[in-house]
Design brief:
heterodimer; B: about 350 residues; globular
Chain lengths: ~35, ~350
Amino acid sequence: MMTDFGPGTEFVMFVVFCVVVAAWAALELYGRRK
Amino acid sequence: VTRLLETTAVPTRIRILLAVLGGIVGGSVTASSNVLKPWHRDFGQAWFAGRAVLHGLDPYLLIGPGRAFDWPGTFFYPLPAALVATPLSPLPEPWACVAFSVLTGAALAWALSAYGYAPMFSFFSAPAHFAFENAQWSPLLTASVIAAPLGVFLVCKPTIGAAMFVARPSRWAVIGGIALLALAFVLQPDWVAAWRGALAMTTLGAGAGFPYIAPVRFPGGALALLCLLRWRRPEARLVAAMACVPQTLMLYEAVPLLLVPRTFREVLLFWVLGYGIANALGILLPPDLEVHQYLALSGPAMSLVLYPVATIMVLRRPNEGAVPAWLEARISGWPAWMPRRSRELLPRDDD
C-alpha cells in the first residue's frame, strides 16, 4: 500500500500510528460529549 | 477431547494456568535459541537501549554495525521501546530476552485461550515459534487485541501497533502511548531527531537490503481487503490492517493472524500452512543468505498463503461485533440491509 521507505518506514508508521490514535481519541471524546 | 476442542469459553483459572505454561514454553524456546545460536536476539536491542537510557546515553548512537551493541542495523524502534525494556535491563542480555519471551508467551497464551482450547494449538505454530526464537514483540502486541491493558505497548512497534489499534482501539493504547512518549521526551528531548538520524544512516536499508512491504502489494495479499466486509469484527479489521501495513515480512510478523483461526480445523490448517512455509523456505534458501533474499520469498509466501486463508475464515463469519457508542449512533440511520447489530462476540478483557 505504502511506498517502501526502507527503515524510514518505521518513522512514517510512527506518524501514522499517532494520527490514527489521536483521531480515535478525538472521536471518542466528541462522541461522549454529544 | 472433541468436547474440549469445541469449547469456546475457557474458565479464567485455566486461562491463567495456560498463560503460565505459555510463558514457560515461550521462554524455553528463547533459551534454547540462546544456546543454539548464541548471538543477539531482537529484544536485545531494546534491552541495550534501556541500559543506555538509564546511563543517560543516546541508544541511537550505540547500536549498529561495529558499535557498542554490534547489530546489522541501527536502533529502529522509537524510544518508548527502550523505556519498556528498562525493568529487564539489570539482567544479562540472554536472560533478559528469556524473561521477555516468558512475558510475551504468557500474553499470547492468554489471548489465544480467549476463544477456547482449540486456538491454543496456534501457540505452537511456526510464526509463534519464530517470534520466540527471536524474542520478538509481535506476540505481546497481538495479545493487546484481547487484553486491552497491553495496548500501552503498541507505541513500541508502531508498524504492527497501528494494525492492532485498528483491530482493537482502547484508551490504554492512548494513555499508555502518551505517557511513554512524554517520558521519552523528558529523558531524551531530541530522541525523534536521533531516531530519524539512525534510520537514515543505516546501511541495512541500502538498495533492496531491508525492504518494508505491505502484504497488499503481493498477489493474494490484496484479497485481505475483503475482510472489510466484516468490519465489525476485530479480527477482520486486524487482517485488513495488517495487509496494509508495510513491514519486514518475516514469519514472526504473521503472529497477529493467529487470532483468526478458531475451530480446531481452522487452527490445524493454519498450523500446517505456517510450518509448510517455514520448511519450504528452509529448503529453498541457502543457509548463509542475506535478509533481502529471505524476505523476497517469505513475503510473497505469507501473502499468497496465510492472508487469503485468514480472509476466507473471516468471510465465513457474520459481520457482528461491538463498535463505540458514538459510531453506533451515527450508523443507526443506515439502510436496513446494512448490518446494524451490536453484539459482543469477543471475550474482551475490560478496558
